[in-house]
Every structure is written in structure tokens, then in C-alpha cells.
């Protein structure tokens, strides 16, 4: 690390386009060397934790629980990314010496090092070492796709049975997921066997060609639709059973201020878990006669826009309070976690006297909710912020106020009162 910092400190300011490229190359090499140091440090941290918990006689199956989140937090990343970084560091320092050397010398990027670790994860240590040696001459020279395919080819050759078992396991883990894409769009991704994916695309292509040939590829106002637009509309119609893609009948929660709904405010609406949506796009959608709409009003504190809600005497959060919590926290409240809210959690545990209340509620994904039950983890805070303390005693604090409230207040001093937030959604048919 000192060598990398010395390189950075010795660089003169670039005075030409050529010098800019030279500097970029040197800084990239230094950054890669620093990533190598992080991998070595991460592996050592894992070793320390293993040794400490072995001394405490903690069962092997229970050791290092939640360690991936600690690594992620230390690097300002989600627990999911922290897990990938931890697994990569461990592999580099145990069974991938050539890849580790390429990283610490600045010849290969951290992302490519992760590709090597991930693509060999299912193999034995002996086969991982063999592949590491076989691809050493390509590190830093092959593209991501070339590197991934080269590793897969070696893996399939060295252990055919493991490759076939992995393919079967991946088939059993088939799934569909949704992620925000920004500007009013989302990604709906299906992970499924190759032949099924090919059949899906063939069907969509065939039906798209039929609609185009029949001259039906026009919007409601008569505007011609592109091939991609027609295929996307068919995708929605086939999955939902709707006659048109815009006739949404599923429950979709949309959070917006009354100034947007009834006025000319530019403040965007918000889809919990997906983020902001342009105001005009949502008002046009609400005006669609094919959508079945009703409104609910949620009241907010006039000082900062925080939602106010009810309490319960039951251990489990009621349905409507859970829905309010998902609206408030938007995504999992754990620092840097990007997963959707799945569980309403008692910040102060119910078993220790924590109430089932708005003030004691935190929206978490299932993985983070389970992790916080491990040894040494605590979640504390208020309605407005959450502080996570890890087993090493490090703390990470995040703001949990509704994002839409922050947009409303950003240019107000003192903060402008909000009044009410209107919640609009369409009932399931």
C-alpha cells in the first residue's frame, strides 16, 4: 500500500492528452495494488475471527456469521457485495496465488479477480489451483467474457460431474426478480434454463412479428410503435392477462404529495423499493381509464415530512402498519443494503420488552433481519435514523426518513410544512 501511495504522490499534473492517459494508467495500477492489500487484509480478518471463535468453542457451523456484512460496511458496500469481496479475498489467499499476485502487482482488476474466484467456486481446491495456473498468462489481457468462458471451459474439462451438478442446481434455483432501472423503468429479470429462455424469446418474437404484420403496432394516439415497444407490451400482456399493457390491475403503491396529484408541482412521485418517477408520468397513469384507482391519505410531521402511524399490542406487525413501514423505509434500512423491505423488525427486540410500534419498527430484508440475531450485532435508533453496531464495535448510522420528504424540504429554510402525502394504488382484480 505504501508503494501505491508513493506512486500517487510522485505524479505531476498532466499537461497534455498523452500525459492524462499516462496518469490514468498509473493511478489504475496503484488502485489495483490497493485492492490487493484489501484482499490480504480481509483474509486476515477472517482468520482472526475464526481463531477468536474457535477459542470460544463456538461450533464450526456457527463461526463467522455476519462477517460479510462487516466487510461490506467497512468498504461502504452492501452485505451482498461484502460477501462477494470476502469470498474472493479468501480464495485469492488460499487457492488462487497467481490471481492474487496479478492483483497486488496491479496487472489485473479486482473485478476480474472476483470473476476467477466466482467461476471456480464450485470446484475442489486442487482444480481451482490448476485453473489459476492455466489462466495466469491471460490475466490482465483477456476481456471479462473471454476470461469467464476460458475458466468455464477448463472447469468443465477438469470436472464434468461437478459442472453437470451445478447446472442442475442452478435450474432448481430459477427465479424472477425486479430491480429499479431509473427514469420510471424497472428491470424484470428471469433466471431460467437456457432452452426455456430461448422458447420465451422465440414466442415473443413470433407474436411481435404477427402484430407488426397485421398493422396493429400503434399507440393509443395512433403513433407507430417500435419492435422493442411491441415486444415489451406483449411481455406485460402475456404475464398479466391484460388486454393492453397499460391496463394495470395488480396492486401498485405510488407515493406522491397532494401538490403533485392536484397541482402543477414538479415534485416526483415515489414507487417504494423502485425510487422516484417523474410527476407527469404518474398523473398520466392515474388518469388512464383502464386503471382501477383509489386513494389513501397518510399524514406526516410538518417539520420534516416523517410519516406518523399507529401502534399494536400484538407481537407481529399488522398488515397496514407493515405496508406503511415499507413506504417509509423504501429499501432495507441496513446501511448500503439495496434489497427490498421484506420484514417488519422490532429494533428493540420484543423478547426484551420492545413494543410493536411505529417508533420501534425497522424495515429489513430477510437476510439482514436474520443476520442481526447473530452474536455481537445490535440495531438501535429512532424513527428517523438507524445505527448498526457490528461485533468489532464499529457503528454505522443511516437516515431512514422517507426520500420524498427530503426532496420536498431540500430548498426550504426553515423546512416547508408538508400537510399530507397521498397514496394511490390500483386494487388487484
UniProtKB/TrEMBL annotation:
Gene Ontology molecular function, alphabetical: endonuclease activity; nucleic acid binding; zinc ion binding
InterPro entries hit by this protein: DUF222, HNH, HNH_nuc
The keyword ATP-binding belongs to this UniProt entry's keyword annotation: no
Keywords for this protein: Endonuclease, Hydrolase, Nuclease
Residue span(s) of domain HNH nuclease: 320-370
Pfam families given in the database record: DUF222, HNH
Gene3D superfamilies linked to this entry: 1.10.30.50
Keyword Oxidoreductase on entry: no
Family: Belongs to the Rv1128c/1148c/1588c/1702c/1945/3466 family.
Protein's recorded name: HNH endonuclease
Organism: Enteractinococcus coprophilus
Upper taxonomic lineage: Bacteria, Bacillati, Actinomycetota, Actinomycetes, Micrococcales
